[in-house]
Each structure stands twice: as structure tokens, then as C-alpha cells.
Amino acid sequence: MLIDEALTEQIIGAAMEVHRQLGPGLMENVYQVCLAHELDLRGVRCQREKPLPIVYKGTQLDCGYRLDFLVEDKVVVELKAVEQLLPIHEAQLLTYLKISGCKVGLLINFNVPLLKRGIKRRVL
Length: 124
What we know:
The chain is α+β, with helices and mostly antiparallel strands. The protein has helices at 2-22, 28-41, 87-100, and strands spanning 46-51, 54-56, 59-61, 66-71, 75-80, 104-109, 119-123. The chain has a five-stranded mixed beta sheet with strand order 1-4-5-6-7, sandwiched between helices. It has a two-stranded antiparallel ribbon with strand order 2-3. β2 (54-56) and β3 form a beta hairpin. α1 crosses α2 (28-41).
């Protein structure tokens, strides 16, 4: 678990840098592109908009789900740019964790004055 904690700290640090540079008030896709670039600058491997198929009764089905980020094949990162995080946002992250088989996820809301108040870390 220590590796996942160190990795989530790297992701959070990259997100804080993006927030420091851009501030709140932009659309989610802007933060997504910039966070991908920041992670790349830091040598952290990530996949953006990773398709997440559902296995239903033994058949893999593409239902259109996409992870905002899958970082180092271990951490699911879901980005938001909303007034406030709601329980449905956390439920979405937990569902993505279950479907993907990942144990650790971050929910990051960039539309806050202080980013640390917009970050939730969840472990299955």
C-alpha cells in the first residue's frame, strides 16, 4: 500500500501544480489535458480517457464508460470542475474502482479556491 500512497501523493502534487497555475473556474477537460501534461513532465505514466468495459454474464460490453485517468495501471483518477462534490461523484469513483479492479482512487474537484479541500482519496 505504501507504493500506492506515494503514487497518490505524486498525483496530488501534480494536480496542485495545475491548480496553482490555472486556478478554479475552467472546464474539466482543460484540467484533464494540463494534468496529463504535468504527470508526463514528472515521469508518471498515465492513460487518459481509458475505456472501461463492463463484464456482464461473462461477456465484455462497451458501455461507453471512460476513466479520466488510469495512473501507472494502479490508481483511478476522476476529475471534476463542479461547485461541490456530491455523493454521486464518490459513488461513481467507487464503481470505477470495482469495475477496473483497482484498489485506490482519487476524486479531484478543481473548482475550489484551495485544491486540498477538493480532493478525496478512496480505497476499496
